[in-house]
Amino acid sequence: MSEKHLRKGSKFPQKENGQLRLYSTKYCPYAQRVRIVLALKDIPYETVNLHCFDKPEWMYDLNPAGLVPIFDTGTELLTESLKICNYLEKAFPKPSLPLNERDATLLAEFDALLALFYKVANNPDLGDFLQLLKHVEKYEGELSKRGKYFGGEEPRMIDFMIWPWAERAAMFDKLFPEHLPAPDALHNLRAWCARMRQHPTLLQLRTNVESQIEIYDLVRAGKHKEIDFDI
């Protein structure tokens, strides 16, 4: 379907009845969550990419909030990444990607932290960044109790839901080069990242961090509509 990101004025791409369709933005980590689960479960679907700063008018008919991901199951439209991933787990139970109550609690705390992540990314402030690092220490401690992954000895749903932001954290190296954790700090998280980075599905769906940095540079400069998500 549409690899090129559709903008304002674009016509709605018609679809066949019953076809699974993901409305996405290439560099959106929330949409990446859904793409990861779809790939892990080998579910056939089509993608329609949308420019999140120059949105087609009909996007608001799909989701009044004007946000991706949006998933068309063929019978209903689902929004919000976790709701979509939970639907996929129930509708396509193999391979199983369980999310137990303990994992769900940690994931809810992680999602609440993302507001600070974006505050730092969009308006870099050292105080905010240091506050973010303090929160990161909690996840270092969680891994010390859980094993190689947040899901234990094998990656589970929670690992794949956290990964898109862990992958993007490399952009802070450019923003705060003098204030990064010491090389011997956060060793559990560093080892987790190294393992996740080599996962076959995540290798296939990896994000170009340099392109992500360029996008945030344009956002901070107020040049949202100049962003080319097709790079």
From TrEMBL:
Lineage: Eukaryota, Metazoa, Ecdysozoa, Arthropoda, Hexapoda
GO molecular function annotations of the record: glutathione dehydrogenase (ascorbate) activity; glutathione transferase activity
Family under the similarity heading: Belongs to the GST superfamily. Omega family.
GO cellular component, one term: cytoplasm
Signal peptide range: none
Chain ranges of the GST N-terminal domain: 18-96
Organism: Photinus pyralis
InterPro entries reported in the protein's UniProt record: Glutathione-S-Trfase_C-like (IPR010987), Glutathione-S-Trfase_C_sf (IPR036282), Glutathione_S-Trfase (IPR040079), Glutathione_S-Trfase_N (IPR004045), GST_omega (IPR005442), GST_Omega/HSP26 (IPR050983), Thioredoxin-like_sf (IPR036249)
Keywords attached to this entry: Oxidoreductase
Pfam families in alphabetical order: GST_C_2, GST_N_3
The keyword Oxidoreductase appears for this protein: yes
GO biological process, one term: glutathione metabolic process
Protein known as: Uncharacterized protein
